Queue: 2 jobs
Job 1
Amino acid sequence: MVVTIIVFVLVFGVVVIAHELGHFLIAKLNGIKVLQFSIGMGPDIIKFTKGETKYVLKLLPIGGACMFEGEDGIYSTNQNGDDQNGQKPEGAFNDANVWSRIATVFAGPFFNLILAFLLSLIVVGFSGETIPTINTLTEGYPAEAAGLREGDIITKIDGDRIYLQGEVTFASALSGGEPMEIEYKRDGKKYTTVITPKFSEQDNRYYLGFTIGETIQCKGLNLIKYSACEVRYWLKATVKSLVMLVQGKLSANDLSGPVGIATMIDETIEVTKPYGLPTVVLNMINFAVLLSVNLGVMNLLPLPALDGGRLLFMLIEVVRGKPVSPDKEGMVHFIGFVALMILMVFVLYNDIARILVH
């Protein structure tokens, strides 16, 4: 359990640091003063000041924040932002032009995607990538009836370009039994067919009727290509999962918080440790890729208190030609923050309940 906690802190910490570093660096480039760069939540355990910024490591290894001069009424001088001579401090967030502020807020989620790509380079470089080549066909299932053969390579599903084995598995699992247009390549030529997945009572899910996957080693441009494909896959999976949540196909009970993530890390370590330390490390790096993409996407949702909510107000400012009242925006973000904390408590309760059940 101690190992799981250490790994959780490292994985979550790297992902959060990348996010906050994005805000920090782009703020500096745009002349915005960063008052505090903090990692974690709760009481401070380590803190020091360098230059104009206070750096803080907090007790709970979740979340983080970059506090900018003048953002949400927080100034390094008095409450109104004036010093003893009645002058506003330089580098206030709200004094920067709107595109500088947009870039600063957007940089956090964007740096999460950059981190995911860099980590994917490590995973794909060491373990290769699994492409969607059909290995075997299951007798009595629709893929065989549609004329697919071993060695065929799936290239598109319902018009969406396919690069990885996981994309086919994901699309099949979420099909709901609807007919799927499959484009595949055989002997250099492309063909198209329509397959209706068959439901398995035993597994309670739909199958196309084949096993798929051919591992290839990736170097040079192929390494860059397939690392980008990995990020693309997790990005698509995250967005589709959110859409399904909104559509009611997934419930709030399917969400996982820090406790749920720690449990998944523990289970992954237990499953992979018989294969040696390198396998465990690569799986943890891959887990960080998934987590980083998820954090980036979730933060771009146009909800109060999230980066996406702040971006929405700035885009309104672009359209209107003037900012929304800081008091009104601050109130919306405060309400959003309270709602977010309530959601976190709900997710924490669900995570603990799932552990107790199992």
Job 2
Amino acid sequence: MNRVYNFSAGPSMLPLPVLEKAASELVCYGTSGMSVMEMSHRSPAYEAIIQKAEADLRKLMQIPDNYKVLFLQGGASTQFAAIPLNLMVSGKADYILSGQFSTKAYKEGQKYGDAKAVASSKEQNFTVIPATTKEDFRPDADYVHICYNNTIYGTKYAAVPDTGDIPLVADMSSCIISEPVDVSKFGVIYAGAQKNMAPAGLTVVIVREDLLGKARPETPSMLDWQLMADNGSMYNTPPCYSIYMAGLVYEWILEMGGLEVMQKINEEKAALLYDYLDSQDYYIAPVAKEYRSMMNVTFVTGNEELDKKFPKEAEKAGLMNLKGHHSVGGMRASIYNAMPREGVEALIAFMKDFAEKNPK
């Protein structure tokens, strides 16, 4: 095997034990005589797979009983429309803009009613999370939307915003199951699975039951959370194999000891990289320290030519997908759950070598 360290922001690397187990079951799952990819989603064998995946996610995240877990398609971006269609009852919603995806969600929300940007860090190039208080939100807003971790800019909320009685909706695509979260503080948590949970194709929505059943009449059936909940995420054929893979990832984390253990590992990996960045002056980490993401670490050299050279040279060393997002440039190391500590250590060693060989 000649596997590389894949720092892609998504689709991203998966845990090696998960890949190995999936490989062992690829041709024949258990005694079914077929692959999960060939299996009817209505079969008893697959029903057991999806039920266990949900049960393990509930255990992992300590999801309260009054929340539904939906396994859907369309990516987190489809939920940008599903959220106002399901929740915008009075026609008002507040959004905090902390990066590209929260801005996209806000623009989508504007199509369906009075979506208001109550705070934004665009003027700071999204290197901080906008500060808000409970008084910033309209009392009659149907929900407040945030992106909890910003994949492109490498920022994360240091604390959950206080929205009072207004349901808080959080896009957690790039940080879900990386650390414990108090699900009860949110009305809705949603996430594309391709960053920290599974291959692309699966979107997880965790929604409090009292928020179901409010979909607007024009809501497409495929975006109606109540309909999906009533049908156990199988109103149509679900993303079967991605759900199976997500289930293996949940098993892997539970076997390691759960999200508290995962958080400790992730904090140590992030600290290694940030400590190095803070110890020298060749690379610049633009994000304010209190808002740094554990999952997505951004940095630049301050020289555009060197920033272009860095990811190309890194690939030769087996360190893949370190180029920053095209909207911000520079470099980005996504160090999700599956990235081992050795990968971060290899990156730091390369960074030191690159700095030595490419003086500014």
